[in-house]
TrEMBL record:
Protein name: Xanthine phosphoribosyltransferase
An annotated Gene Ontology molecular function: xanthine phosphoribosyltransferase activity
Catalytic activity: XMP + diphosphate = xanthine + 5-phospho-alpha-D-ribose 1-diphosphate
Taxonomic placement: Bacteria, Bacillati, Bacillota, Clostridia, Eubacteriales
Keywords linked to the UniProt accession: Cytoplasm, Glycosyltransferase, Purine salvage, Transferase
Amino acid sequence: MEALKNKILNEGTVIGSEILKVDSFLNHQIDIKLLNEIGQEFKKRFAKNEITKILTVEASGIGIACIVAQYFNNIPVVFAKKHDSTTMDNNAYEAEVFSFTKNKKYKVRTSKKYINKEDKILIIDDFLANGNAALGLIKITRQAEASIVGVGIVIEKAFQNGRECIENEGIKVESLAIIKSLIDNKVVFK
Ligand code: 5GP
């Protein structure tokens, strides 16, 4: 997706050799025009699939998923919660996730009310690194016995093994920008 690649090249900053910061358009300030283009592109890539719900994880996934859902007939978006709260339903599906950027484990939870056997789920997230966040959402979907249509990622880092982990589960991955390397502060696309 050219517009996304250009935005990454013009506004992204590289931290170390593995992290890309895109706070000016995706992870802090959000470029809604670009998100609409992202929504259209995911619709194209999953045009042949029946999808009943989008599943993502808080926080950065929520904004993306909500705009993407508008291109899939306004289907509901469910986001897995990372934080304990008194309002969280105890009757929940749960998975443990290792965070690549925070270097620690956390749990993701989704109320059993909002995913069921009949659902056909599209998982959406901002980044794909080692695949842990997506695998957590896959585990939740499987606990609900719903089917997984695929995983849609805005920015994939191909030098990490997330795609392989998800494809090993027999699940299709569609990424809109695929980064080959981030060495010497330079973004190189695949
Ligand atoms: P994974 O679970 O695939 O290892 O990592 C994906 C999650 O970690 C995403 O939900 C994203 O929030 C975060 N993440 C991984 N790599 C990056 C990165 O290079 N930049 C940013 N901004 N977030 C990242």
